[in-house]
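Cross-check.
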Amino acid sequence: MVRNIVTIDTEKCSGCGICVSACHEGALAIQNGKAVLTRDDYCDGLGNCLPACPEGALIIEKRDTTPYAAPPPAAANWPLQLKLTQPASPRLTNADIVISADCAAFAAPFIYAKQAARKAVLIGCPKLDDIDYSEKIAEIIIQNTPRSITALRMEVPCCGGIPWFIQKALEKTKASIPFQTLTLSIHGELCEEAAQ
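Predicted model, tokenized:
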């Protein structure tokens, strides 16, 4: 089907992630330091993300792609706690999963809301939960084949367990799933993005 869809000039893209926040459809992500269209079917082709790009790296063009399919409403994320979630939960099947530090939603609610929109969210605290979550995350990966996994952590040392557990689970399962870590400062700003 030929329709309008966003295209990213990777030469111009600085990987700032502003377009990801501006995309109301959840079709964009940062991978390997560049913006990418991860879901052609979610891109409505209206270009709300274009004005947000400070580098002018986004354009709308007509091309042959999948039909537009409005993304589902925000995932019904219950239970949120990673320790309470069943690995075979239907909400995790083929999902974009965000595994967030408990405090991230409160330290940076706007960034958290943008990252969690239309994704399956799990939360935990490596310091307070005192659990090695890598086994449970590995079970989730094996049983659900997620499309992507994002670790959302604070810059404090104890939050380092979130991406570490995910990386350990990916190594154990030998799964090739796009994985990125987003780090929030204690002032509630996005301070680091790393694709693994």
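Strands lie at 2-8, 28-31, 34-37, 58-64, 96-101, 120-124, 148-154, 179-184, 190-195. The chain is about 25% helix and 25% strand. Passed to J.P. for a second look.
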